[in-house]
Design brief:
Order of helices and strands: HHHHHEEHHHHHHHHHHHHH
Number of helices: 18
Radius of gyration: 25 Å
Strand order of the largest sheet: 1-2
Length: 321
């Protein structure tokens, strides 16, 4: 008779709902001495581990698409993601690691061909503020950093951060004395610059114009000189900027020029940069001869003259084949 009353296996949605209930309890009873709190914390850690197994599979089985879909739908139906991020500092180390993997995986889960995590974050951008500020807390910095990099995969999220005051924070965080945290910040920042390069090549005019303006503002800020030097040492970045100079839009051309002039003015150009500029020397000189603003601008003309002088001074023996 005992076998007749076995408990019914929990569905992925059941696990998410129970996890949400436990997160609400933990959030509301952060400083409680309720003897049940420890028991509920253990339940929560177990649930998060189960969520990870559903999404990633385990040594015995691969993840099931339908189960992952049901889990994802329930996870974003209410504020489970918000609760998990907010409560992360209260979890033990293993649960933090599991939660980080769960959040990372959910950013790639599609439901009816849609990344519903992107829609959720679009409506809850303050969560990104929480993740970024996590770099200030050594206990959660690496976990929040890993979550943040996965969230950046969504274009709307990356654009929000690129256009916000948070970009300046990354330069401050890179200076953090803790090597692991500073390294993690550097990885995240590298992800941003690579993503911005993809935005610069976007087929959407508005996206390209916003991306080049943000890039210019960032690189021309003197406090970011170290980042600027790294950026103008990349031949891939140079090729993107040269293509933007050929844009039909004068606005994009002008913004691109303000970044391109940094490549030309660099007195320690890598050989590959010199080679590309020398190969395109005649084309660039013809372009700048006719490149004018609608209104007279002395600073622009001075900058353009300097760029022309730098390009004219390029010599073949300084270029690498």
């Amino acid at each position: 008779m005992k076998g007749l009353f076995k408990s019914k296996p929990r569905t992925p949605a059941d696990i998410v709902r129970h996890t949400r209930e436990l997160l609400v309890y933990i959030d509301l009873n952060a400083n409680s001495r309720d003897p049940k709190r420890e028991e509920k914390m253990l339940e929560l850690c177990k649930n998060i581990r189960e969520l990870k197994f559903v999404l990633y599979g385990n040594s015995e089985s691969e993840p099931v698409v339908e189960a992952c879909t049901k889990l994802t739908q329930e996870f974003f139906r209410q504020n489970t993601l918000r609760l998990l991020i907010v409560c992360l500092p209260k979890l033990n180390l293993e649960a933090k690691k599991d939660a980080t993997q769960v959040v990372a995986n959910l950013q790639r889960q599609q439901v009816q061909s849609r990344l519903i995590a992107s829609d959720y974050l679009e409506a809850n951008k303050d969560l990104l503020d929480i993740l970024i500020s996590g770099y200030e807390n050594m206990d959660i910095a690496l976990h929040y950093g890993a979550m943040l990099r996965e969230c950046i995969r969504h274009q709307s999220v990356a654009r929000y951060i690129l256009e916000s005051e948070h970009m300046q924070k990354f330069f401050d965080y890179i200076e953090i004395p803790n090597f692991d945290i500073a390294s993690d910040v550097t990885i995240t920042f590298k992800f941003f610059t690579e993503f911005n390069s993809r935005l610069l090549s976007s087929p959407n005019y508005v996206t390209r114009r916003q991306a080049i303006k943000i890039l210019g503002d960032m690189l021309l800020d003197r406090s970011n000189s170290a980042v600027m030097v790294r950026y103008v040492s990349s031949k891939d970045n140079l090729m993107i900027l040269m293509n933007l100079l050929r844009e039909s839009s004068k606005n994009i051309q002008i913004e691109a020029f303000h970044v391109f002039k940094l490549f030309a003015a660099n007195q320690n150009k890598p050989p590959e940069i010199t080679s590309i500029l020398f190969t395109n020397k005649d084309k660039l000189l013809r372009f700048f001869r006719d490149f004018k603003l609608d209104k007279e601008d002395e600073q622009f003309e001075a900058d353009k003259d300097q760029v022309v002088r730098e390009i004219q001074a390029l010599k073949k023996e300084n270029s690498s084949e």
